[in-house]
Amino acid sequence: MSELRRLALSVLLPGFVGTTAPAWLAGRIDEGLAGVCLFGQNIDDVGQVRDLTADLHRRRPGFLVASDEEGGTVTRLEAERGSSWPGHLTLGQLDDPGATFDVAAGLGAQASSAGIDLVLAPVLDVNSDPRNPVIGVRAFGDEPQLVSRHGVAFVQGLQSSGVAACAKHFPGHGATVTDSHVGLPVIDADAETVRRRDLPPFAAAVEADVRCVMTAHVVLRALDHRPATMSPTVLRVLRDELGFKGVIVSDALDMGAVTVSGGRAAGAVAALRAGVDLLCVGNPRHPEPYDDEAAVEEIVEAVERAVVDGSLTRARVEEASDRVASLSDWVRSRPGLPASSSEGLRDRGGRAARQALRVRGDVTVRGDALVVVASAATGFASGREDRSVVSALMRRRPSWECVGLEHASDVADVVARAVGRDVVVLVRDRLSPLLGDAVGALLSARSDAVVIYTGLPDADDRGHRTVHSFGGGRVTADAVADLIVEGAGR
Prior knowledge:
- This protein is of the alpha/beta class.
- Helix content is 42%, strand content 12%.
- It has 18 helices and 16 strands.
- The strands form four sheets. A six-stranded parallel β-sheet has the order 2-3-4-5-7-9, with helices on both faces. Strands 11-16-15-14-12-13 form a six-stranded mixed β-sheet, covered by helices on one side.
- β2 (35-38), α3 (46-59) and β3 form a beta-alpha-beta unit.
- α16 packs parallel to α17 (433-445).
């Protein structure tokens, strides 16, 4: 094996298929692969993931295991049952940095006890455009100072538990109306607006000694025509203006924004050239399956070719590799925490979820009910449809019926099925015009319905009896269900 191949592998963070390490992965670890990123498809239960991460770490000390653990709707460790921790917007609405620290510390202890070294959180995007299809409730809010104070608390809480935090998505994904999983977002704001609105949370996180920062696949026209991940101009802002010394991690290279910019191999080379240190490849099972081993080889070969032909300097790759090695050393120097440390903070997370609820009217349901789900959108970041609120309600009242609502033409049937029953309407995201018409028609017919909103505050708000949870996930869903179902949780 050439030293150049080992060098290329030392800056890669791919995903893989399965709940045990495949043979190809074991071989690449021996060759110097930096680490892996775990996704929901890699995890069955707590025991399995601990066995998996222990095996990976045994194969080479210092091997990095990363995972997206934001709380709320984005979790890998608890993908099947939903997160035990409230999401960012819930915490932002509560606006108690102490609670945010405790939630992050508990989440970090959970990750640490599962063998996770690098948690790809917090989200420091200022969600300035309510139409944003990918950030939304994943952000602490739409105001830079609020996002900054909670971002710092989250970073400090995570890293107090022994795992590295990764602030994302630099220089800000909050002003976009395109999901970078499917296309390339372009932000037309001027440079002054970006510096005033989007950069303060990242500056605060750098000051708080965050170990990693993840790039955004977005074009800031005021600074460069290239996506930030591939823009030396944008990444120099992070290094030179904000003074960041840690590891710059790319967002996943299998996302649509990179595909339209030349593909993951070309994107990997461009990202390294721009200043990225650790290349996150992505999930080979979502949304479109691909060959995990082939993706790694494609990128390794592209990096090797670029160094040989001079389009990428070896010194740049060595610099990136050294930073990744320093991150690994930092993680190994931190004491891991037992699962009990996480358990002790779960009550704090549940209390935060309950305290953040915004309620209008009497939302208690005292009889039989029809639960009407007005949105079934699946976020690419979460990787699956969030059914946490429905599940929480049905656990408490198995006799309740659940139906979907897609068009105004469905309303007559829903109203007929609800005769003699209460109606609970669940709105999980921004309403499309079609869904807005459908919900409006339903509430005209059943003005007594309870409406649960798990999205942005006041987005599409209608109805006299409402609950806003500002996000999903199991702990938030339980708080909502306990409030609605008479006698539950009391």
